[in-house]
Design goal:
The structure is a single chain. With about 675 residues, the protein is mainly α. Helices cover about 55% and strands about 0% of the residues. The radius of gyration is 29 Å and the shape is globular.
Length: about 675
């Protein structure tokens, strides 16, 4: 955790957490190292170290004084959420207040803390609470520079359309609506701007990935990519002369039931005994068999289904090139072929068909029919339904069924991103009712069924992550269904990780504004990974213009002021957002909108938590409370009888003062305009 890079230090912190959970290391051994980590340059590292120190103090009371003393160094951390974590610890646990040494240590640490945090700690120590001095410089505002840049560009612009757009941007800085980006990248071309999928560079890298098999089967996108790297790497990089040394390296996983058969075939070029025929309809077992077959026949080509984009898209022209280098597609490579069709990017399919049209017959009638269905131009007639029915009757095996449905889905999704009853009806007419059982779900044969109106089928937990990565175009309709009440009632949906749902929404082709209320409702599940995932999604959407501050602020402020809406979860989202550009201003706008309601629906503890966070945010921004409704509500709270923490905080907030400058709403608008400006100029968000 004292490594020179933040990434390496975070790896060390994660290792410490695992060791701690296994009781493999004592608290007294961890505390000195964590004391260094709380000063880490990144918020994630420092906050994680504080959390682990708190865990040590809870589990080992004998170490709690030393653990808390080590955490106090985080009060002066430049990232507000880190100091907030320590302050929350001090407020929740009261045992330290009776220990003179710890009280003195807190008093010393207060000197380096932000004014709002220092005021909270002073109240805990029984000292008079004073309004924090506002020190942020208003000259740091980006608003004047942005206004000057837009005005200069408008004056030099000759295109009337662009001049009008720039005028709308300038008006937005004065309170008008923020215009949409001018000439943005078309939605069906967004995949071309995404990072490329990078295959392994060497056999050693493939072996390193196999050595951690549990990592290959997680729901996170990077873990799905690691799985793709293994499947592609064993074909691209022959073990060759290094086979024996690689076999020794891989010895710990050769008996692993998931990775072992593939690792054995790779380093020995012999079929494993017994041959691991797929026992369950999960994609990994079929793709592993396709890789084993390729290794045994000496096939060095990448799998047909390997994506070209880090988010799962496959460039249709690259897919065509891979097919042109093959003389046949047999065995379990059929599964790879259907996976490739599910992943095909929305544009470029006609060009791919132009390269393949004259050669597909060499793969046989059935594959030629599937490729024709998936790739030929949308205005061309589909092959006759009788031919499709005959195909299924002749070969009703699951590999052929999956290929056929992938081709039909590919055809419909190329014309429209919405999957629905049209494709469902085609599948029913083609396959007949006997093939519509729930047993095909795991196999990914009928992903459209969960999207069709009136669907009432179970979605197995393995299906969501699989299809989400396998078919990026499914993200929008899948999310539209998930955020409705009807689909949440289906078995399996309520267990779906909130973080997984929110990561699906990260895809740039997903329209976030209509989905935002339902995505924010993911906080209702109370899952610990929900707030950070939602904060990440909101930051991404704000940066790439799919969201505006005027969308986000009402969605979060409404939750903050409603007891049943888990305001603590929404508060965590705002604390996470503070680390993002413009996040503090957005947090201030949300918090003040909630305070303007009077917070009468909340408990006393919830009101205190919101007011304390607002005090911290405003102190760091160097601005007093700006919302007139919030100021009126604070005056009412301050005038209440008795001296409570709520009245103290209200008085502190009313006493805040700062220099003149742009308001938080104006700075949020500037962030939105800046994002639209960058998108219109083709600059990265």
């Amino acid at each position: 955790m004292a490594a020179p890079t933040a990434r390496a230090a975070t790896v060390g912190l994660n290792a410490a957490k695992r060791l701690r959970r296994r009781n493999a290391v004592a608290g007294e051994e961890l505390i000195p190292v964590l004391g260094v980590a709380v000063g880490g340059s990144t918020q994630q590292l420092a906050k994680g170290a504080v959390g682990l120190l708190r865990e040590v103090a809870k589990v080992e009371p004998v170490c709690r004084g030393e653990a808390l003393a080590s955490a106090l160094g985080a009060l002066s951390h430049p990232k507000a959420p880190v100091a907030e974590a320590v302050a929350a610890w001090l407020e929740t646990d009261t045992w330290w207040r009776g220990e003179a040494e710890l009280r003195e240590a807190v008093q010393v640490a207060m000197a380096g803390a932000a004014p709002a945090i220092a005021a909270r700690l002073g109240a805990l120590l029984g000292e008079p609470a004073e309004a924090p001095a506002v020190t942020a410089e208003a000259g740091q505002d980006a608003l004047p520079a942005l206004r000057e840049r837009l005005a200069a560009t408008q004056a030099a612009e000759r295109d009337p359309r662009r001049r009008d757009w720039l005028a709308a941007c300038l008006a937005a800085l004065d309170g008008g609506p923020v215009p949409e980006p001018l000439d943005p990248v078309p939605t069906d071309e967004l995949w071309r701007t995404e990072p490329a999928f990078e295959p392994p560079e060497s056999a050693e890298q493939v072996a390193r990935l196999m050595l951690v098999p549990e990592r290959l089967f997680q729901d996170r996108l990077q873990d799905r990519l690691a799985q793709e790297q293994v499947l592609a790497g064993v074909r691209l990089h022959s073990a060759g002369a290094e086979a024996e040394s690689l076999r020794r390296v891989l010895d710990p996983v050769l008996d692993d039931d998931k990775v072992g058969p593939l690792a054995w075939t790779w380093v020995t070029r012999k079929a494993p005994d017994p041959l691991p025929l797929p026992r369950s309809p999960y994609a990994w077992e079929y793709r592993r068999m396709a890789a084993i077959e390729a290794l045994l026949r000496g096939d060095r080509e990448p799998p047909l289904g390997t994506p070209t984009s880090a988010s799962g898209w496959l460039d249709p022209e690259v897919f065509a090139e891979r097919l042109l280098r093959r003389s046949e597609v047999t065995g379990y490579e059929l599964f790879e072929l259907s996976s490739a069709l599910y992943r095909l990017a929305p544009s470029g399919r006609e060009a791919a068909w132009g390269r393949l049209a004259g050669t597909v017959r060499r793969f046989g009638t059935r594959i030629a029919l599937a490729l024709h269905t998936a790739l030929c131009p949308a205005q061309s007639a589909l092959p006759a339904g009788l031919k499709l029915r005959a195909l299924v009757t002749a070969s009703p095996g699951p590999l052929w069924l999956r290929l056929l449905v992938a081709a039909l889905w590919c055809r419909d999704s190329s014309a429209s991103p919405q999957l629905g009853p049209v494709l469902t009806q085609r599948v029913k007419l083609t396959l007949g009712g006997g093939y519509l059982g729930d047993g095909l779900w795991h196999f990914g044969l009928l992903p459209d069924r969960v999207l069709a109106p009136g669907s009432n089928v179970t979605w197995p937990m393995s299906f969501g992550p699989l299809v989400a990565f396998l078919a990026p175009a499914l993200a929008q309709p899948l999310l539209e269904r998930h955020v409705t009440h009807a689909v949440r009632k289906l078995a399996g949906w309520e267990q779906l990780s909130a973080a997984l749902v929110l990561r699906l929404a990260q895809r740039p082709q997903v329209a976030l504004r209509p989905l935002l209320p339902g995505l924010v409702d993911q906080l209702d599940h109370g899952q610990p990974d929900g707030p950070p995932a939602l904060a990440e999604l909101l930051a991404t959407g704000l940066a790439d213009t799919r969201l505006r501050s005027t969308d986000v602020a009402p969605a979060l402020s409404a939750r903050l002021a409603t007891r049943s809406a888990k305001p603590a979860q929404a508060l965590q989202v705002l604390i996470q957002l503070q680390a993002e550009p413009g996040g503090s201003d957005l947090a201030a706008v949300c918090l003040e909108a909630a305070v303007a309601t009077g917070l009468g629906d909340l408990t006393g503890a919830q009101r205190v938590q919101i007011l304390e966070t607002l005090l911290t945010v405003r102190g760091e921004l160097g601005r007093p409370v700006e919302d007139p409704g919030a100021l009126a509500a604070l005056r009412d709270m301050a005038a209440a009888k008795g001296s409570t923490r709520t009245t103290q905080l209200a008085k502190q907030l009313l006493a805040l003062a700062g220099k003149e400058g742009a308001t938080s709403r104006q700075r949020c608008a500037a962030q939105d305009v800046e994002a639209a400006w960058r998108a219109s100029r083709g600059l990265p968000s």
